[in-house]
Design brief:
about 325 residues, alpha/beta, Rossmann fold, Dihydrodipicolinate Reductase, domain 2, 2 domains, six-stranded parallel sheet, six-stranded mixed sheet, 9 helices, globular
Length: about 325
């Protein structure tokens, strides 16, 4: 196991970057030197971290040659330009963007699902972090797939505005604070009002009228879990600040009962099962997932029409397990 003595956080001023710093502050690599990187526009900003003031450095002029690990979360264009540079200078990159996810020679990792794929990882190189919605779904589905062989997934996601970024969060807060029962006239981040509304639209539409986010779930499930599973997704942006929720309908090859599914999920890694006798024992994004490291599963129930179908509900913090936490858990498979 290698030692991470110096770690660079790329995109340190963004929402995921700040989540990286919160995790590094308390839970990961306490002895490592942490370098904060961002665009030229953000360079020079001062961020307090580990009881010291740290100046954000300009990514464009940074030399990665003395850095062991770089955690990228600054978008695909930044990753495309600077992740290969970091690797060429001897650094391992864990990239949170979609830029490298679908390349055959780049591992796409959820540690609880396919972390073993890094057993023969060649250093230095890039490891891709999956999409937030995919991560929480696959943490829950991996043990079910092992036991019952999932044939088909129908999923509807309910995604918080933090998944879009700071400006989206500010837009929702602003619209809610000025809302008086009328339609909001000014929107900038989303094509339509997000306050008191839901938008069945996450990312650009393709020629088949599926969105970018819906296609990510399909492609990433095939690469990480099983490329024979049929996947249909509908991704919806909702007026929630943080925490994604998902409603899933699964069809399995093997017969599956509610009791069998509970037995499989109750001790699964990275997961908390909500299945008490109380009617309201189900997880939500705000009351359970927000700020928590686990993937929360509830509303587990057998389909009324088939012995090979089951329904469930998933909630997780998209900035933690959906992004920064999963990236650091990937890093832990390589570095002490």
């Amino acid at each position: 196991m290698l030692k991470a003595k110096r770690i660079a956080v790329v995109g340190a001023t963004g929402m995921v970057g700040q989540t990286f710093l919160n995790l590094l502050q308390n839970d990961f690599y306490p002895d490592a030197e942490i370098v904060l990187l961002a665009s030229k526009k953000s360079a020079g900003k001062i961020i307090e971290f580990r009881k010291k003031e740290h100046e954000v450095q300009d990514l464009s002029s940074f030399d990665f040659s003395s850095t062991d690990l770089a955690l990228f979360s600054a978008g695909s264009s930044v990753s495309s330009k600077y992740a290969p540079k970091a690797v060429s200078q001897g650094c391992v990159v864990v990239d949170n963007s979609s830029r490298f996810r679908y390349e055959d020679d780049i591992p796409l990792i959820v540690p609880e699902v396919n972390g073993h794929e890094l057993n023969n990882f060649q250093i230095p190189n890039i490891i891709a972090n999956p999409n937030c919605s995919t991560i929480q779904m696959l943490v829950a589905l991996k043990p079910l797939h092992n036991a019952f062989q999932i044939k088909r997934i129908d999923i509807t996601t309910l995604q918080a505005v933090s998944g879009t970024g700071k400006e989206a969060t500010e837009e929702l807060i602003g619209q809610l604070s000025s809302y008086n029962g009328n339609k909001v006239s000014v929107t900038s981040v989303y094509p339509k009002q997000i306050a008191n509304n839901v938008l069945p639209h996450c990312g650009d539409f393709d020629e088949n009228r599926y969105t970018e986010e819906e296609n990510k779930i399909l492609k990433e499930t095939h690469k990480i879990l099983d490329n024979k599973i049929e996947v249909t997704a509908t991704c919806v942006r909702v007026p929630v600040l943080n925490g994604h929720s998902e409603s899933l309908h699964l069809e399995t090859k093997e017969t599956i009962s509610e009791e069998q599914a509970i037995s499989v999920l109750q001790d699964a890694p990275g997961l908390k099962l909500h299945h008490g006798l109380e009617a309201n024992d189900y997880p939500t994004a705000t009351t359970d997932a927000d700020g928590d490291n686990l993937v929360h599963v509830g509303r587990l129930r057998k389909d009324l029409w088939s012995n090979n179908r089951i329904n469930l509900w998933i909630a997780a913090d998209n900035l933690l397990k959906g992004a920064a936490l999963n990236s650091l858990q990937i890093a832990e498979l390589i570095f002490d």
